Q: What sequence folds into this?
């Protein structure tokens, strides 16, 4: 039986329950053997995180402490340079072998601009792409990303039959929680309790992150 591993990247600034529930639902919907969350060091397509890499990793580790179904992977933080998905997938493919099924999970908002990513046309050769439908975002209907959909779209079961090369679009439950809103709340002196794991909120306060007191 082919081993199937999923990867869900992000700044996780901070990690919150929306991230965690989505990762768990993706693992279950895709029947993955593993689901790993990868905090990026410097995101190429958005502003740099507001707290440092080690603090974001610590929050992720605290969040996953009681969830054996999800794992963390710190490889992008260890490179200490812009986190290109192509580099990460090349490293994973070299490490895990050619037969393991790799699934890279991303939101429709990111996928819509995939053609601006570093070596984007080669990503589908290294892994399956799993795209998460988000409210307010529609699938591209023309241009190079639309062509990628037409050529590679498949059902979720297809990721078990091949190591890479399929594009799957899912509509999992999305909790309406935003890391940006959480940071804004904390800066305003408000509590984000029940939006982030308690261990993460305790760490934020202990470290004085995001302007907390």
A:
């Amino acid at each position: 039986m082919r081993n199937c591993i999923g990867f869900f990247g992000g700044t996780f600034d901070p990690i919150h329950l929306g991230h965690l529930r989505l990762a768990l639902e993706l693992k279950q919907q895709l029947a993955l053997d593993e689901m790993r969350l990868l905090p990026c060091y410097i995101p190429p397509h958005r502003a740099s995180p507001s707290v440092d890499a080690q603090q974001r990793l610590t929050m992720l580790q605290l969040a996953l402490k009681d969830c054996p179904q999800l794992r963390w992977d710190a490889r992008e933080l260890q490179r200490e340079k812009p986190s290109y998905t192509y580099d990460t997938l090349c490293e994973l493919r070299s490490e895990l072998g050619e037969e393991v099924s790799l699934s890279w999970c991303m939101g429709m908002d990111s996928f819509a601009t995939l053609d601006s990513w570093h070596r984007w046309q080669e990503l589908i050769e290294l892994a399956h792409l799993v795209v998460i439908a988000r409210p307010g975002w529609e699938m591209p209907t023309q241009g190079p990303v639309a062509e990628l959909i037409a050529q590679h779209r498949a059902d979720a079961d297809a990721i078990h039959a091949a190591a890479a090369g399929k594009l799957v679009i899912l509509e999992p439950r999305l909790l309406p929680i935003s890391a940006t809103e959480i940071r804004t709340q904390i800066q305003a002196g408000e509590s984000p309790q029940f939006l982030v794991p308690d261990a993460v909120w305790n760490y934020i306060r202990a470290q004085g992150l995001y302007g907390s007191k």
About this structure: The two ends are 51 Å apart (CA to CA).
